[in-house]
Amino acid sequence: MSKILIAGCGDLGLELARRLTAQGHEVTGLRRSAQPMPAGVQTLIADVTRPDTLASIVHLRPEILVYCVAASEYSDEHYRLSYVEGLRNTLSALEGAPLQHVFFVSSTGVYGQEVEEWLDEDTPPIAKDFSGKRMLEAEALLAAYSSTILRFSGIYGPGRLRMIRQAQTPEQWPARNAWTNRIHRDDGAAFIAYLIQQRSHAVPERLYIVTDNQPLPVHDLLRWLADRQGIAYPAGATPPVQGNKKLSNARLLASGYQLIYPDYVSGYGALLAAMRP
């Protein structure tokens, strides 16, 4: 079993902490506020953007770092502070720790290209906005470390119901019917936990796209969600599919991991069932 530090214990980090603790690992969760942690998880109150608060983490002597912070605001400055400077500060504070591997939760937003072809880990990322560029800047900090970059597509799950709510207001559906790629939060956390468990006999790949089996046009998803909720929407053909991209999860599947929710039907179906009175 390993000593694991999870930097950033929001929704994804908390679910990962629960799974790793259940596997018998010694887990410490770093977060900015003193909110409750899952049973068995040690709490460390610190802020990755403030190096002075990170002085004690080296004494935890973590063997694995999972960096899954979330920017508090969608702006270039907050992305720079949270992902680039925050990761830099955390790695610097862990100098002298017996760190064996770093898992960094990045984003498929680094792929700014809009093409018909499937994209995978061998596709060069072409970031076109600040968020993708900052993620690539942070990823580059790990070049000298034994590390795995996890580029997540759109995360959904308990508490992440944006598409379900959007389906309830057809008049606000986007005019452009672009491709959407998604991953359930439980699969995101379970896949990281799986890679950590596999380290004893298989070195993880340097990069994974973390997404489910079925990208689809966003209007197809919204219509399916509306139908399941009894929401009426204008009849007629859907807009032509334009924009975004389709992401391949072939490398994820080749790792041996089996998705809990392989597609939107199983994932959103479970969420809708849990919402029923």
UniProtKB/TrEMBL annotation:
Protein name: NAD-dependent epimerase/dehydratase
GO molecular function: aldehyde dehydrogenase (NAD+) activity
Cited InterPro entries: Epimerase_deHydtase (IPR001509), NAD(P)-bd_dom_sf (IPR036291), NAD(P)-dependent_oxidoreduct (IPR051783)
Annotated ranges, domain NAD-dependent epimerase/dehydratase: 4-204
Pfam family, one: Epimerase
CDD domains given in the database record: SDR_a4 (cd05266)
One Gene Ontology CC term in the entry: cytoplasm
Superkingdom per UniProt: Bacteria
